[in-house]
Amino acid sequence: MNPLKRRSGALTGLHGDKNWIKRAPARAMLRAVDFKQEEDFDKAIVALAAPYTNGTPCNEHIQEMGNILKKELELVGAMPIIFGTPVVSDGISMGTEAMKYSLVSREVIADSIETMIEGYLTDGAITIGGCDKSIPGAVMPLLRTNVPSVFVYGGTIRTGKYRDKELQIVSIFEAVGSYGAGKIDANEVHEIECHSCPGAGSCGGMYTANTMAAVMEAAGLSLPGSASHTSMTEDNKKLSQDKKDDCAEAAKALMNLLKQNIKPRDIFTRKAIENAVTVMMALGGSTNGILHILAMANEADVDWTLNDFQRISAKTPMIGDFKPFGKYVMSDLDDIGGIPVVMKELFDAGLLHGDCITVTGKTVAENLEGKGFLHSSKVGLGRNDKKERNDNPVIYPVSQPYSPPGHHISVLYGNLAPEGCVIKLSGKELKLHRGPARVFEDEETCLEAILKKNIQPQDVIVVRNEGPKGGPGMREMLAPSSALMGAGLGGSVALITDGRFSGGTHGIMLAHIAPEAQQGGPIAVVKEADMISIDLEKMELNVDISADELAARLKQWKPRPEKYTKGVLAKYAKLVSNASKGAITG
Q1: Which of 154, 259, 326, 384 has the fewest CB atoms within 10 Å, i.e. the most exposed one?
Q2: Catalytic: which of 502, 546, 577, 580?
Q3: CA 281/CA 487 separation, integer angstroms
Q4: How does DSSP classify residue 519?
Q5: CA atoms within 13 A on the CB side of 404
């Protein structure tokens, strides 16, 4: 008997075992597919999740990666069962009703993969992720089922180019705002549209997909160096050799994990989460990482709260200079050595745990031995040694960071956010913003007001009823936030919401306000022109009214009728928690 066949023997039967004859009908069906040789039934069965769709560049190449992984798993002696999942593109659905299915798709993907792992009693799993929700969606079921597993990232897109400027997806969102402000014409918008996404791969800045890829590598759930690899060759015509190699190495790594019986929960410990959050803060990652790490911690039965994010933020300097707030994209980080370079810098500064086990079967410290900055011919991409830095590095030294600790994602409370909210500073110096509330009941009416130039400096835009239950689905506010940036209002107008923001969002933006409006949170009773204060010294978000006035308003409040009574969104609205718990459904 193959010692790696710990679970699937109950499905296929085991040679010489009493259930061999009983399981003949199952084998009869498997013989019609890839189980052609008698010895195939003695091999470990591996679930291979390849969430392919031609509906988004983030996952357009995942089918090819899945096919490569299938062959590589067969070469190392496993029997892969390959399958897909739904994928919703944030960038395409943004600003429409379709966006309500984006965060929901995380749960659908996770449940789909769990169903295949348990429905086939697989001994292990490899999952691939591209578009951002498909990354936590691909890892949550690994932690849930706890079979030996490896996550493989589909890879980052290459930058587009127009008039000697490098473009990425946020370029076109901000171009819409610039057009609305009269800064560019329709022809230029069209050119930016046509050049922003030159091929397959996930959005190139430190947006949610690349943030989560970095998180998975830092947590030890994916292979060292794989998070920063581009998906395609430089001409965007073929899958990159790096991604092909990632597939081959992942298959080998899984077999090693099966032999050693190392499981995801052995890897994704509290210390590993601290490593992941440290890297996320250091790189200037997406606020969506908060939601997804909370959800992953829940799957792993690790006690992790919003306060833990603030604890890590308070001691972690931001050392990455990445879009949307900075200059560089993920492929630039790859040029100087990728996530291992970042981790080595943080590890040497005493900010990472070195004793965490990873999918290599080695510890973080062992994986980082001999790692360091790679020489790059590209000016300003790295440092020459530990004591000098170039004028424009991708990664700054911890001793001379891009910004000091506590200057990226912070957690605020206050009478508008009793259970918390998050702000993404990305190195900005902001102590206090106080202004009149401009209240909108959804994203669309907010965007219309911005494009019609009805928003003034110092305003505090309030977008509510966009939370996990109220949306439902907690849409991202990239369209209005980008419109503010494009109109030149990003530094003078704040936007607060019970929804969430894209990884491409920057400016004075607060999200994940909990409780949300649909739950009767205080954001539900904010009135037009109420003065709202964002106080970064007190770490509070407050509406400047008395406690008695707030209580009186809340007493009069009534929830809006449920918009959806059937289907996925109706089920989600009934089950989902608030954002402070990760918007989880179980």
Answers
A1: 384
A2: 502
A3: 28
A4: G
A5: 1
